Amino acid sequence: MISCVPSGLGRNHLIIKVQATKVKRLCKTHNSITVNGQFPGPTLEVNDGDTLEVNVVNRARYNVTIHWHGIRQIRTAWADGPEFVTQCPIRPGASYTYRFTITGQEGTLWWHAHSSWLRATVYGAIIIHPKEGSSYPFPKPTRETPLLLGEWWDANPMDVIAEATRTGGAPNISDAYTINGQPGDFYNCSSQDTVIVPIGSGETNLLRIINSALNQQLFFTVANHKLTVVGADASYLKPFTTDTIMLGPGQTTDVIITADQPPARYYIAAQAYASAQGAPFDNTTTTAVLEYKTAPCPAKGGGPIKPINATLPVFNDTATATKFTTSLRSPSKAAVPMEIDESLFITVGLGLLNCPPGARARNCQGPNGTRFAASMNNISFVLPSSFSLLQAHQQGIPGVFTTDFPASPPVIFDYTGNVSQALWSPVRATKVYKLKYGSQVEVVFQGTSIFTAENHPVHLHGYDFYIVAEGFGNFNRKRDTAKFNLVDPPMRNTVSLPVGGWAVIRFVADNPGTWLLHCHLDVHTGWGLAMVFIVDNGVGELQSLEPPPADFPVC
């Protein structure tokens, strides 16, 4: 396990360098942006209650920020990381120290760049162990293995998104998926570096699985082995057993496997769950190998014994994805907010913008000469560029955002039906929604079928939330409230909004700051599938945002 190398200032003072590094995959060497020359980047291993100071030094040619995905950042929104939301970017040659404390969290999270498409290669695991003297709520596994699922382009990802931004069309799909940075046996020039996960007969292994892919939900399985799910997004779950799990980008799942099969080599595999009808996607399979220490040796002069194949669902198997997401439960009665102060209904989906006056056809290569867009409640979110939203909010700088993000769609329509094309064009704006400190919030996310319906992994920064219900079609409060689980719903930081369906979350707004809510398919975020909650300070210091650090980057 790689931990960040301490700087000599103490155990939790770390220096990470963002830099270009030669990385060879699929027979070709690229000058990829990495952290400390590693791909994926180093694993941060910490305990609940630890305070971290991470000095990020930007030696790359792009602006960069780092987001600590799923860390609550209580009162430390300055350290959350999304570009132009909580900070201005770290310019090439500059540095910034992220300071934050892990508060009441255990399990698997991750860190990644939150600037353009840099997170394609700039990411790593965060493993939060229980406080000293505490233990897991399950028997301690023999070993633990983080498995980061990624997406690889045989190109510079920054060029891929720059081209799509220029044309207004969809970006090129990836060329491979990876496990811990390696594509695996089914790709060219890759099998010699396939990741091996060793295990002894009778041992247990806690697999910490992270979907760090840029734009694709993934199914994951281990050939012939049951997965006992024990946690997700650094929250424990009531354990249950399954063959396959589904993770949207941003989501993590902790599973325990037991080496109870005949000693051999077994494929660990992941491939796409692609729910958007007719949309192109990377239909390849990444693999690692679960290798029993007593697996039979190959014959003299022969290659390694071929692993036993894994069976994954077909790419559009929504039933399997749904069976998994609806099986998650908190281990015991949950503190679900019951007296709702703020009720929002947010449509989530794609859209198309008409070609701007005077624009050339080559800049409008979306469907029928348009440009792709995406929106929440018909607002396609535009990031500011002169100040971060947090700075503008905290310093009262006018003209950076408006506080009129609508709590419900401006027009009511058949969201998952055949939507009139008159409703396909969103409004581009920087609108936020203000929440009083301590308010109990319910959000209904409603997917739309504008252009195409698909599953969206929706991530809220600065918070965990309870997913109290999900379903298909249009949400109907009279009918669907009966389906709410207000006893033991799962707690997550990223919800899988079902394709052509809805999901309901609840949380208490107890963390002041500016908090991005966005689809974690980066292509959709760039098209505007985002909004921001501004949570006001409460009473006294402990309910108020800390002052900005001295080295806070300026725009």
Automatic annotation (TrEMBL):
Reactions performed catalytically: 4 hydroquinone + O2 = 4 benzosemiquinone + 2 H2O
Keywords linked to the UniProt accession: Apoplast, Copper, Glycoprotein, Lignin degradation, Metal-binding, Oxidoreductase, Repeat, Secreted
CDD domains membership: CuRO_1_LCC_plant, CuRO_2_LCC_plant, CuRO_3_LCC_plant
Compartment(s): Secreted, Extracellular space, Apoplast
MF terms (GO), sorted A to Z: copper ion binding; hydroquinone:oxygen oxidoreductase activity
Cellular component, GO, one term: apoplast
Source species, domain of life: Eukaryota
Signal sequence interval, chain numbering: none
Pfam families: Cu-oxidase, Cu-oxidase_2, Cu-oxidase_3
Limits of the Plastocyanin-like domain: 18-132, 144-294, 404-537
EC number: 1.10.3.2
Cofactor(s) named in the record: Cu cation
GO BP: lignin catabolic process
Main function: Lignin degradation and detoxification of lignin-derived products.
Family affiliation: Belongs to the multicopper oxidase family.
Name under which the protein is recorded: Laccase
Organism: Rhododendron simsii (Sims's rhododendron)
